[in-house]
């Protein structure tokens, strides 16, 4: 190789390195912009004034189109940076501009969804848009780590963007569907909590002999603290009754919303949002109640948590009773569940009467 050839080759390598550096800077800028978008989305508020001619089906059509474009842009980015050579500065700039325009279109379309269409629906769409931006941000991060080389992590990140975009088809399309989804997810969480504590109780029931218990205690001194006493078991029964009443409340409210819930007026949409709000409170209170039942059991804490759960259930039933999706025909199950809650919480009070001062 002649000296001239060496100089030419070195100059080319330097130019490639400079180009790679510029492309990396472009990707860094894109990553920062996506992070900013995520932060703005987390605020959840839109300063845009609602359109008088807003049309929900048209909104879904437009949003769906932006999700498809976003999936396509992620694929282009993955392919362009999957192997050498690194895209030119102009190619990279064009690609990144396309990605940024796609993100802007998706976010802008989301922001056009008025709050009066339902805050539960809006939250559902917000989370879906945020997930796409978050996964896209991860894809850009993986590309930055291996510019022009590609990696399995890069392919995985691209697949995650696709998955989030594909989730669009499963989004609830109005506030009624969004509230039903909240109830269904909450019911699943309550069922899981109930199943775990019942399995723990049934396993504990295997130690029924006093002699057996004494043997276990002599071998493992901490065992006594890990077993329920007879008074613990007596208190557990009405608490589990409250959890089962929670399941029944969610099931009956879900059925009423599914059958009679409507999104044809602002008042009815707001009632559905109020229902979602109180339903969202049930699972944490069920968790608190169930966790306080595990040994060693603090009866005072159990009482406090059970009372809080019963308050949420009464609120949910009162709200359902005064809503548009229940009628006189629903009064029987509403009253039955109210009685079930009262019956179980009265038992809890009686069994923890030594803690009335708390």
Automatic annotation (TrEMBL):
It comes from the Eukaryota. Keywords: Cell cycle, Cytoplasm, Nucleus. Its main location: cytoplasm. Residues 63-202 form the Cyclin-D1-binding protein 1-like N-terminal domain. It is found in: Cytoplasm; Nucleus. Transmembrane segments: none annotated. InterPro entries: GCIP-like, GCIP-like_N, GCIP_C. Belongs to the CCNDBP1 family. PANTHER family: CYCLIN D1-BINDING PROTEIN 1, CYCLIN-D1-BINDING PROTEIN 1. This is Cyclin-D1-binding protein 1 homolog isoform X1. It comes from Branchiostoma floridae (Florida lancelet).
């Amino acid at each position: 190789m002649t000296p001239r050839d060496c100089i030419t080759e070195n100059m080319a390598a330097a130019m490639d390195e400079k180009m790679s550096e510029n492309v990396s800077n472009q990707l860094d800028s894109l990553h920062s912009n996506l992070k900013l978008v995520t932060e703005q989305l987390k605020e959840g508020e839109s300063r845009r004034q609602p359109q008088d001619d807003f049309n929900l089906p048209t909104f879904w059509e437009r949003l769906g189109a932006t999700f498809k474009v976003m999936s396509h842009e992620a694929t282009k980015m993955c392919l362009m940076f999957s192997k050498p050579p690194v895209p030119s500065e102009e190619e990279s700039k064009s690609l990144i501009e396309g990605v940024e325009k796609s993100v802007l279109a998706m976010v802008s379309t989301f922001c056009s969804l008025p709050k009066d269409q339902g805050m539960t629906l809006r939250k559902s769409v917000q989370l879906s848009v945020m997930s796409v931006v978050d996964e896209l941000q991860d894809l850009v991060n993986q590309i930055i780590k291996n510019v022009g080389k590609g990696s399995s992590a890069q392919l995985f990140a691209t697949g995650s963007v696709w998955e989030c975009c594909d989730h669009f088809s499963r989004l609830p399309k109005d506030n009624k569907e969004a509230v039903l989804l909240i109830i269904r997810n909450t019911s699943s969480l309550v069922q899981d909590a109930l199943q775990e504590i019942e399995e723990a109780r049934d396993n504990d029931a295997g130690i029924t002999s006093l002699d057996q218990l004494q043997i276990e205690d002599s071998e493992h001194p901490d065992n006594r603290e890990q077993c329920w006493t007879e008074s613990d078991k007596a208190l557990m029964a009405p608490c589990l009754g409250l959890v089962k009443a929670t399941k029944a409340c969610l099931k009956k409210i879900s059925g009423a919303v599914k059958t009679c819930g409507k999104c044809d007026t602002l008042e009815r949409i707001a009632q559905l949002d109020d229902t979602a709000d109180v339903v969202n409170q049930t699972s944490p209170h069920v968790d608190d109640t169930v966790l306080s039942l595990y040994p060693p059991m603090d009866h005072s804490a159990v009482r406090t948590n059970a009372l809080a759960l019963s308050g949420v259930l009464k609120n949910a039933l009162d709200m359902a009773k005064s809503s548009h999706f229940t009628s006189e025909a629903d009064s029987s199950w509403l009253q039955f569940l109210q009685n079930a809650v009262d019956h179980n919480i009265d038992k809890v009070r009686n069994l923890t009467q030594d803690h009335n001062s708390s």
